[in-house]
Amino acid sequence: QFLMANKLDTAMWISRLFTVYCSALFVLPLLGLHEAASFYQRALLANAFTSALRLHQRLPHFQLSRAFLAQALLEDSCHYLLYSLIFVNSYPVTMSIFPVLLFSLLHAATYTKKVLDARSSNSLPFLRNLLEKLNANQQNILKFIACNEIFLMPATVFMLFSGQGSLLQPFIYYRFLTLRYSSRRNPYCRTLFTELRIVVEHLIMKPSCPVFVRRLCLSSISFISRLAPTVA
């Protein structure tokens, strides 16, 4: 009854579980490397489906207008719909599947707990314990996802020069990264950029750091800072 009463949430729960399943079989190619590539695409397509459902839930009344598009781009679900479309037809990159896998796992775990609560307050204690441990590590998982989002930017450039990526991919991914940096619901991308900057500046200011390395890092920090969008 609980599942039928929340059909849209249930559909997203099932698609997230499927995303976790496909992502796991890509990361751990138990069925062979050829099958792993197909599971990579399935995971991203399932994530795109979930993101589209979530975006519809957040903005139910679609309008073909500039204002609606601007509103949609503020939603995290729109960001990951774009993310899935960027990588779904590209060369499989293990690094790109972790955000999809972990976000799906976190959201699926939250809804699984609701399903268990609807069934019985004491049902499946072992599973409940696993879900509690996952929830306790949520902040670390979100930071890991943000770290993946950041380091995928140079990875897309490397893929371009190695012949495994398209010319447009780095530019489109840069747009995705600016959206994540400006996210209202998830500040971890901004936080990680700040923490990485602090760590790099601390290291290069040590007397043992060569001058040319210091200058290169400071120039890179200045360049990246200029590319960062303004956050209200």
UniProtKB/TrEMBL annotation:
InterPro entries named among the record's database cross-references: PER33/POM33_regulator (IPR051645), TMEM33/Pom33 (IPR005344)
Keyword Membrane: yes
Gene Ontology cellular-component terms listed: endoplasmic reticulum; membrane
GO biological process annotation, one example: endoplasmic reticulum tubular network organization
Predominant localisation class: membrane
Membrane-traversing stretches: 12-33, 80-106, 150-174
Keyword field contains Signal: no
Coiled-coil regions, chain positions: none
Subcellular location(s) per record: Membrane
Protein origin, superkingdom: Eukaryota
Keywords: Membrane, Transmembrane, Transmembrane helix
Membrane protein topology class: Multi-pass membrane protein
Family assignment from sequence similarity: Belongs to the PER33/POM33 family.
The protein, known as: TMM33 protein
Phylogenetic classification of the source organism: Eukaryota, Metazoa, Chordata, Craniata, Vertebrata
Gene from which this protein is expressed: Tmem33
